[in-house]
Amino acid sequence: MRILVTGATGYIGGRLVPRLLEAGHQVRCLARSPENLNLQPWRHQIEVAAGDVLEMSSLKEATAGCDAAFYLVHSMAGGKDFEHRDRAAATNFSEAATDGGIERIIYLGALGEPASAHSKHLASRREVGRILASGPTPVTELRAGIIIGSGSLSFEMLRHLTEALPMMATPKWVRTACQPVAVTDVLDALVDSIEHDGSRIIDLGGPDIFTYEEMMRIYAREAGLRRRRIVTLPILSPRLSSHWIGLVTPLPTSVARPLVENLRNEVVVRSPDQRIGQTSYRVAVRKALEKLPAGVTTRWSDAGAADTESPGSDPRLNGGTTYLNRQVIPTEADAAHLYWAFSRIGGSNGYYWLDWAWRTRGVIDQMFGGVGLRRGRRHPTDVRAGEAIDFWRVEAVEPGRVLRLRAELKLPGEAWIEWEARQNGDGSDLVQSAWFRPRGLWGRLYWWMMLPAHRAIFPRMACRIAATAEERDYTCS
Predict the structure, then answer these.
(1) Are 7 and 69 a contacting pair, CB within 8 Å?
(2) What residues of the chain score a pLDDT lower than 70?
(3) Three-class SS of residue 24?
(4) According to the CATH classification, is domain 315-471 in 3.30.530.20?
């Protein structure tokens, strides 16, 4: 079959595409920024349609000629009013599927009972399912709760809470029943759904039911941590809980709050039409932990937030006031060696100079509701356009030559940093450029306030990158 996949740059979509290819299907991916798929190992095996579910005109071309479609789009990371964006996107896609002659839609929704909850996230997920099913195209809606896999949003929240806090004062929702499911079982269910006709709703869960507290204790044992002491406090509201999660985990507060609201419900399979995966929670955690040291395939943060993503926003091509700090360092290293040195920036690799200052900036950002440094890197050396590195988003990658990052900090303006390796005879030049486009008076004051720090950090940072490249002794493939 020819299958359209929306959300291919996201956590589930990025893992589903190779599964579909292995099953012999032809795959077309819808992406707002097609370049974000260029470095995927399966890029040469798929078609890519540039478009956005919020733009009807682009959907008509993307759906044409496809037999089935996976709807894996979610706007929660975009912050406020995500329900409105999800509603509009689902309406557009339902109409486009009808016009394009798509025979079935497979939608990954959320497990839980919205009637007993105060969860905007869960209510929105259910509404999207109803909108998609309101059209003539048959829809299979798979409802999953907590998905356990390396890099999943639920797993990262669980992991960081458990690892960071040997003793925890927690809200009452940690004693709510959950039925976690392994990401491999979710992918199996999605692929199998292609073969079924008609509309249906399937609850998807794993073989175990635990409270969130029990899940944290089991994680601690599987990760080789000491026994965690957990005390529940009734005074911790969803708002306070989400701020705490935003401080301790990689999840921004805007993402944590809808999740906390959802976790106040029991997330358990109850429908007669259900599918129970074969992978136990303990095995799923074990497999996820095995993937972490070498990096993961996809992460929850791979897809950019809707309110911050600005594809192609090269600071050199936009008008307005833009400040620049540029460093040019001649080196004896080959350009490929230079690229290796700067492409491993961030995460556990650090920033080459004054790492404590970068960590402090990350903490300050988290205090104001930003993402901070806790997102880290998906992989210690590999980098792809569109993915997150700490508080940066990878905006452009040219392997062996260029890496450009856009800041996702809470800033009075927009900021980028770029490294370019320019071959120069037997050696190469490292060109490091940091741009800032201020927003109003506060943006301009911010730049001048930070100027002493920039003049102290950026030159030494560039020198350290160049020195690391010159010391690197290996044969580039």
Answers:
(1) no
(2) 75-80, 114-118, 169, 171, 234-239, 247, 258, 293-294, 303-320, 472-477
(3) coil
(4) yes
